[in-house]
Amino acid sequence: MDENTVMLPLKEKDKPIIQKLLSAGCCARCVLRFCCVSVQAAYRKQPEETLKELQIFINDTENDKCQDSVALDSRDDYKSKDAAESETSEDPPNKRAKLETSITDVQSEEEAAAVVKSKDGDSRVCVVCLGILQGLCGTTQAIKIAEAVKAGNYEFDTLVLSVSLPAQLCVREHSCWLYVKKEVREKGLVLDKDDVIQVKEAFKWIMQGMVTKELGGIAVVTKVSPFEVSVEFTHPETDADCHFLAATCPDCFKPTKNKQSVFTRMAVVKALEKIPDAKFLKHYPCPPTQPTSSCSPQVQCLHVSVFVAGRYNKFCRSLPQTPWVIDGERRMESSVEELIAAPILSAFRADGFNFSSSGREDVDVRTLGNGRPFAMELLNPHKSRFSKEQMKQLQETINQSSDKIKVRDLQIVTREAMSRMKEGEEEKTKSYTALVWTQKPIQREDISFIDDIKDLTLDQKTPLRVLHRRALAVRQRAIHSMSTRFLDSHHFYLRLKTQAGTYIKEFVHGDFGRTIPNLCQLLKTDTDILELDVESVDVDWPPPVPE
Amino acid sequence: MESVEHEDTKANAPSVIDRYYTRWYRADMKGKPCEDHCILQHSNRICVITLAETHPILQNGRTIKSINYQISNGCSRLENKVSGKSKRGGQFLTDFAPLCRITCTDETEYTIYSCIRGRLLEVNENILETPNLLLEKPSTEGYIAVILPKFEESKSITENLLNRDEFENIVSKRSSAQSQPS
């Protein structure tokens, strides 16, 4: 398959456009774009070949043009929307626009001059694409991309190639379009900006196949893939090109809170849509200025997040849920999420994680029974395929790694699963066992009435111990049932089944009377809570994994 | 769970206050003898303003006639409203900002003060309904107000306050120096 023999589907009306753009400093491929050439293969030709053909095209007299434009090969992938036009060029001259014919003759001298100028233009950086469709778009670049992908050592079948271009490209494109628009209008034609092929598209047409080849044949998926290889082009030399838009269209550029530039692609595009042509031409050169350097590409790989869920038990009374760090100093060794995450992060070779659970318990509270549901988002996992056996193995590894926590029902879930887990928080019930101390001495009979209390509604003001980070409010919560187990004259075990979100400790000691009713009031004595265990979190998600 | 050692008499287990709060004091507030305030500072920097055991209101079997949170024509502490996590809207108090005025049945009047700089989060409305709480449980259910100091000031507010030992020192000096104030 010799791509260099693809005929460029150019039309007579393209001639003045080609001429003007070449003399302005556009590279051959950008010229094709402005001619609305949508034949992908045309862009894959060597740029030097394309340039040569363009020059030949604009220099041709009418007769020569007839011969040269005879198709040398009729290939199936010749998918030009101008396919009909290609046959037109074989037609006798009188079928062409009469207007064009006369002008072509007059311009032959100027064309010759333009050809000479643009021959040198080969080595110059394109004024529109800033080199992206020139040297940054070939085998060397494809190899670089493939190297970056291989270096990441990802597990993947497909990949999607995404391109990020500097915002000033839009400004330069707009400038060239206006440059050509004048020319085109004089000849009674129209060049719609939307018909111009985008730099991004052309880049992908060229690079996708090459990257696939360098990766040894892994398919490059255009639209959807969990694995994204992004190429970001930057060009600090011309970043200032966008700045004039802030003065002419100030409402398009909102000041950003973080340090990032306010000249985003979106904002620039919006401003260019609004700015009248005359105003644009007053503030920006047309055609754009010649840059001295090409863009700098940066390749980054990102695999879509994978979600792992399960249930955890906590057997330690001195383990926080999340790392406890104050003023940069860690106050407590490790945490529930770190103990669970470490083996998982390592198995999935992920860059980081977000841990989330259906409620939380305090540092000094154990989680017994079936455990508490949790879900973890694994960021940029380099390995993402795990069989059920492998997940069981991973679960075992976690359980062997520490006696402070234990996990069960470990499984891969979807992103939607995260919200399902949070659903349970408000609606479900939870069971606890508390060790209660009483100030006045008690006997079994004194506490038996508690077993008969059903659906006790509490008004709980935000506990003082969390008030620094929570809004002040009164929450109504229900204690559905309780049962007691007498221990001695100052202690008993209190079992409770409550609505999710109930503060147990505050129910027991009253929190300065801000939880009403409370156990002190019920027992008519000061009470305090010495220990608390979570017995069950009644959420039936994630689905149990059979042993 | 493990079984716990116990004593039949009054238990010695550390209370909620002992476990989570530090006691600070301001003695003779605004120069008035023995009008001592106790500030309970939680480890999360939130402060609860209470009467110290030595405050006149708690002496000599006094009973409370009324508690008034309207401290001036334009300002009632009951109208204090905070919203959101950052507690916007709370009245900002300085050390000598009055919280409430308490009148006892023997016609003695006392003003309770903020003692610290910070945002007023809430005042205790339970004592309006049940003034006895203030007499029986001045350190817990009978609290006066909850104040949130600025994050940057959470340590410095205690510079003007007495710790437990310093306070007890002052109290013992009183009883030896003069007869018990009424």
TrEMBL record, chain A:
Domain Pus10 N-terminal eukaryotes: 126-301
Cell location: Cytoplasm; Mitochondrion; Nucleus
Protein's UniProt keywords contain Nucleotidyltransferase: no
Keywords for the protein's UniProt record, in alphabetical order: Coiled coil, Cytoplasm, Isomerase, Metal-binding, Mitochondrion, Nucleus, tRNA processing, Zinc
Family annotation (Pfam families): Pus10_C, Pus10_N_euk
UniProt keyword tRNA processing present: yes
Enzyme Commission (EC) number: 5.4.99.25
Main localization of the protein described in the UniProt heading: cytoplasm
One Gene Ontology cellular component: mitochondrion
Coiled-coil blocks: none
Disordered: annotated span: 76-103
MF (Gene Ontology): metal ion binding; RNA binding; tRNA pseudouridine(55) synthase activity
Domain of life: Eukaryota
Pus10-like C-terminal domain segment(s): 307-538
Catalytic activity: uridine(54) in tRNA = pseudouridine(54) in tRNA; uridine(55) in tRNA = pseudouridine(55) in tRNA
Any single GO BP term: tRNA pseudouridine synthesis
Cross-referenced NCBIfam families: pseudo_Pus10arc (TIGR01213)
Similarity field: Belongs to the pseudouridine synthase Pus10 family.
Name by which UniProt lists this protein: tRNA pseudouridine synthase Pus10
Organism: Maylandia zebra (zebra mbuna)
Automatic annotation (TrEMBL), chain B:
A matching Pfam family: GCV_H
Main location: other
UniProt keyword terms in alphabetical order: Cell projection, Nucleus
Record's keyword annotation contains Nucleus: yes
Organism: Astatotilapia calliptera
SUPFAM superfamilies: Single hybrid motif
Gene Ontology MF terms in the entry: actin filament binding; actin monomer binding
InterPro entries: Abitram, GCV_H/Fam206, Single_hybrid_motif
Protein name: Protein Abitram
GO biological process: dendrite morphogenesis; regulation of actin filament polymerization; regulation of filopodium assembly
Keyword Mitochondrion: no
Gene Ontology terms: cellular component: dendrite; filopodium tip; growth cone; lamellipodium; nuclear speck
Family named by the database record: Belongs to the ABITRAM family.
Domain of life of the source: Eukaryota
Localisation: Cell projection, Dendrite; Cell projection, Growth cone; Cell projection, Lamellipodium; Nucleus speckle
